[in-house]
Amino acid sequence: MIRRFAPLLVFAGLLAAFGFGLMRDDPRILESAMIDKPMPAFSLPSLYEPDVMLTEALFKGQVSLLNIFGSWCVACVQEHPTLMEISKSGAVPIIGVDWRDTREAGMRWLERYQDPYDQVIFDEGSLLAIDLGITGAPESFLIGKDGRIRYKHVGIITPKLWREEIKPLVDMLNAETES
Description:
The model is unreliable at 17-25 (pLDDT under 50). β3 (64-69), α2 and β4 (94-99) form a beta-alpha-beta unit. The longest helix is centred in the N-terminal third of the chain and has 22 residues, at 2-23. This protein has helices at 2-23, 74-89, 103-113, 127-132, 159-178; strands spanning 43-45, 53-55, 64-69, 94-99, 119-123, 139-143, 149-154. The chain is built from five helices and seven strands, in the order αβββαβαβαββα.
């Protein structure tokens, strides 16, 4: 009896899986196992000062926006004006991670487009990127004052995304940890 309905059960399962996929609000939203976890421990050089090692301590005591970029990333060029505006507003410090790049190419890119970052971590070997579960660039994370990852966005930060989603989260995290 079960053998007779097996194809129908398989078809119903596939239909349910496709339906669930179509009902997702935004296909760019990827669940991250890192949400509410502490920033992974790391010790990587500054892009500008190879002898200066930067660590997860960068993220303690302030809400921060961590942005993964690379000089090879076409989408990062599109995102860059928004990061410049965020930086100029002073709403949140932005920590850049120059990923899978050469030091020279990363510095040239930031010189050409201007540097919106308060610090730039140089992750040539993908050590931090792997720990964060990065799938591409640009990707961004909001880190709370306690050093925990609170939000992840895959793709370009647009002015609308900043205004309607990320900035309210920054404000909420600042208020949450001040009380």
